[in-house]
Design a protein that fits this description.
CATH topology of the largest domain: Diaminopimelate Epimerase, Chain A, domain 1
Radius of gyration: 18 Å
CATH class of the largest domain: Alpha Beta
Largest sheet: 18 strands, mixed
Helix content: 10-25%
Structural class: alpha+beta
Shape: globular
CATH architecture of the largest domain: Roll
Number of domains: 2
Length: 272
Amino acid sequence: MNLTLFHVDAFTNRPFTGNPAAICVLDAPADPAWMQEVAREMNLAETAFLHKQADGYSLRWFTPLVEVDLCGHATLASAHVLWEQGHLSAVVQARFHTKSGLLTAERRGEWIELDFPAKPAEPVESMPGLEEALGVQPVYLGMSEFDCLVEVESEAVVHELQPNIAQLETIPARGIIVTSRSSTPGYDFVSRFFAPRVGIPEDPVTGSAHCVLAPFWSKRFSREALTGYQASARGGIVRVRMDGKRVRLGGQVVTVLRSELVERAAFQLSEN
């Protein structure tokens, strides 16, 4: 039996922008090694696999190199596919059981809002090799559960950043978030995200990074609701809202491609 893969652009309402993810809805659990092979073949920042279980769906995320514990844009894309393909009614909450616990998604007009755990960064004095790899002097340096957070002096610095990716790969963190206040009307802060250690030199738009950015900028602005722009080549918009120890992430989504794993490739699923 062939399996359908959906290629979805997340945190955008325009095709070929935002962050692309491949979404595969399965009838049953699959072998992790097979899922990793499919993710490597898709060669996107994330490929998500989900199957129905009691009270929602099991959801796992794979980069081309590794399985990850938390991913925002592929969760947003997964919820979109469930509603678009009729697996869930548009008025029903999408519930995902993941390595980071229960995550939910709800429709808010043309936007989707995710309920994710906040991952605040704690300040650190230094991180060997980081300044040299980035080529900039941090205004603030912090470390969250997964990622390193670097505040720089201006939006221009964020846009113009040309880090040494090979050197960044030596930094002991899942990824490096570089951020500043925004000087562009309509946005409160801007960011970029580099994660070569998990096979992603630069991620176009990173929902999970905004679990770090939301508590950081919420304190700076003394506001719970903010709008961020991730200034990658593709670019994307993420609305954030603090809700206690949780972060509400808002984004838009568009399906770009539908494809099928042919029978031989799909057959590996039934053998594992």
